[in-house]
Amino acid sequence: MTSIIHTITVDARDSYAIASWWGQVLNLPLHPDDNPGDPESLIQLPNGMRYLFITVPENKEVKNRLHLDLQPADCTRDEEVERLLGIGATVFDDQRRPDGTGWVTMRDPEGNEFCVERSAAERAATS
């Protein structure tokens, strides 16, 4: 017997706002029933997995125990980092190396860490 990951759930101060932000990152809409002020907001990923944001009263205080690693689909890692900075992300830890390898750890507007890795094309070019 095995299990699959069905939903990744993220605590949030404002579930609709942060889900909307992640919708921009992933270029995916929120669930049609979601509205500002809702206690939960959902993004359905193309592979069937769900990304659920739930409003909680407490602020994020410590480093995430789980985070997402993003791989740009149609641009370079550096172009994606710049796009994400433009929509409100911040750089937390820059691990880019002179040879083009490495990643950038960023934070979303609520402080949740995530990484931006090289695109598949960038990986193939250095293999």
Summarize the structure in words.
The chain contains three helices and seven strands, in the order βαβββαβββα. The protein has helices at residues 15-26, 77-86, 120-125, and strands spanning 7-12, 40-44, 50-55, 68-70, 90-94, 104-107, 113-116. The strands form two sheets. Strands 4-7-6-5 form a four-stranded mixed beta sheet, covered by helices on one side. A three-stranded mixed beta sheet has the order 1-3-2, covered by helices on one side. The chain is globular. The termini are far apart.
Record keyword descriptors for this entry.
2,3-Dihydroxybiphenyl 1,2-Dioxygenase, domain 1; 3 helices; Signal recognition particle alu RNA binding heterodimer, srp9/1; 2 domains; 7 strands; four-stranded mixed β-sheet; alpha/beta; single chain
Can you list the strand order of the major beta sheet?
A: 4-7-6-5
State the major sheet: 4 strands, mixed
The CATH architecture term of the largest domain is Roll
**Approximate strand percentage:** 25-35%
What's the helix count?
Answer: 3
The stretches of 5 or more residues where confidence is low (pLDDT under 50) are none
Distance between the termini: 36 Å
CATH topology of the largest domain: 2,3-Dihydroxybiphenyl 1,2-Dioxygenase, domain 1
CATH class of the largest domain: Alpha Beta
Count of DSSP E strands?
7
